[in-house]
Amino acid sequence: MKNLLLVMAFLLTAESWSQTQPFPANKVYGNGIMAVPKNSQDAQNNYDTWKTNFVEDCNNGRYRVKFDNPGETVSEGIAYGMLLSAYMADKVLFDGFWLYYKDHVNGNGVMNWKINGCSGTAGANGATDAELDAAFALIVADYQWASSGSINYKSDAKALIAAIKNYEIEANTFVLKPGDQFGGSQITNISYFSPAYYRAFGVFTNDVAFWNQVAAKAYTVINNNLTQNKAVGGLVSDWCEASGAYSAEANRYANAGKTYTYDAARTPWRIAVDYLWYGTPDAKTYSKKSSDFVRVNLGGSANIKDGYNQNGNVIGQWHNATFVGAFACAAMAGEDQAHLNASYIDLKNLNEPNSYFNHTLKTLYSLLLTGNFYLPLNATLSNDTFDLEKSTVTLYPNPSADRITINAPGQSTISIISSSGSIIHQQKTTSELTEINLANQSRGVYFVKISNEDFKSITKKVILK
Question: Which of 26, 120, 406, 446 has an alpha carbon within 20 to 30 A of 280's alpha carbon?
Fold first, then answer.
């Protein structure tokens, strides 16, 4: 009984440290196929190497990610680190990255893109891919740890999403700008496009119509670029206009932004996510084009190089994780199991532990490939709040042989917690009455926690007999 009381006390007083989804999650996506040799230990190994080689403690509760020049940090790296640590359930590291991000924001509330070490701006203003990844990582953090602790992940996510909307989406066109201070229809970066995130942002902020238009525009620009330049497969260019044509403003970038190199290479990964999570037909079409280019045109993953003209001619010379892993993600929508299996093994066997870009992306890709880069529940249901204190919460029958019915306000979160403190079931309610089947659980005492978006909760005890 003493232990039982301690568990209840923990649940009622230490909610900010509760964890929804420990690693590994090992999810099976609702769309696409999974590699047969997938193993979450591969993702864990990649993460451990990444953390050892690229994370530095700034000794003030902040952490940074070392860039190609180890004395520098870029916003992209911080955002990648936020995604990785959120999915790996590494709260201390996640909080440190987010505090570092906030230490270095400009007047628009987005991080200056390059920082010298732990402090000192080396490159001013935002890079939109970092904002997108960071905002979505905050949504994952809110799912993982809730938002009643020292950092309110939910309100921070909403604030960052608002900044993206206000400063990094071109007004009236829905074209993604590559930064808060430049770009739009005259120059954009397709590899930043994250339509799966946009759909989640829309639900999370109750702004679905706007963000769905941003997602639709992403596919318009992609298809314009492929058609305009007679591209093979899914070989988009690094930079382009919204019309798909090459941009005169891209002359400062490699090959004037006209080739599929280290920017564009991330596109198959980002678009595959939209198919795996949402089953988006445009994402399926693009992913299959990308996968078939490797399987048919190149003869398999082992022949991938790090650069192509849009007509499919190779211009690169290296076989690395940035390119191999993104194409492997596309293969999850490519309908060829053997090709996906071979692509997974090819990526696993690449060993570039000291390459910031290659190994960081390898780790992100491996999360998706193993079912550990998932759409969290709080990004699938509206965040409308309710007043728990004025609500009546009941559950019956109690004791129960198997099923319980919970009467609670809609849009609440129900967590079933064992006497040891483990969350064995969690879901959002869509109506006032929710039936939960506990027939597969052992007999004993369980706790039912009903919580709202204002960080208030009620915990009730139920007995399975």
Answer: 26
Decide if 31 is inside a domain.
no
Q: Which residues contact 297 (CB under 8 A, 6 or more apart)?
A: 232, 233, 312
Per-residue pLDDT reduced to its tens digit, 293-325: 999 999 999 999 999 999 999 999 999 999 999
Per the listing, tokens 């909307």 go with 165
CATH of the domain at 47: 1.50.10.10
Whether 253 and 166 map to the same domain: the answer is yes
Domain co-membership, 206 together with 242: yes
Residues 428 and 375 placed together within one structural domain of the fold: no
76 has catalytic annotation:
yes
Residue 311 CB coordination number (10 Å): 10
Q: Which one of the listed residues 95, 129, 263, 282 is annotated catalytic?
A: 129
Sign of CA dihedral 333, 339, 341, 346: negative
The number of beta carbons lying within 10 Å of the beta carbon of residue 411 is 17
Same domain (yes/no): 323, 227:
yes
Category of 444 on φ-ψ map: left (φ > 0), alpha (ψ -120 to 50) or beta: left
Tokens of 115: 């920082």
Instruction: Please check whether residue 97 is in contact with residue 63, taking contact to mean a CB–CB distance below 8 angstroms.
Output: yes
Of the CA atoms within 13 Å of residue 358, those in its CB half-sphere come to 16
Tokens of 61: 């509760």
The count of C-alpha atoms lying within 13 angstroms of the C-alpha of 369, restricted to the half-sphere facing its C-beta, is 37
- What is the DSSP secondary structure assignment for residue 109, as one 8-state letter? S
Residue 455: count of CB within 10 angstroms of its CB: 15
Q: Does 24 fall in a domain?
A: no
Residues of the chain with pLDDT under 70: 1-18, 381-392, 419-421, 453-456
Say yes or no: 74 and 95 in one domain: yes
Q: Is residue 29 part of a domain?
A: no
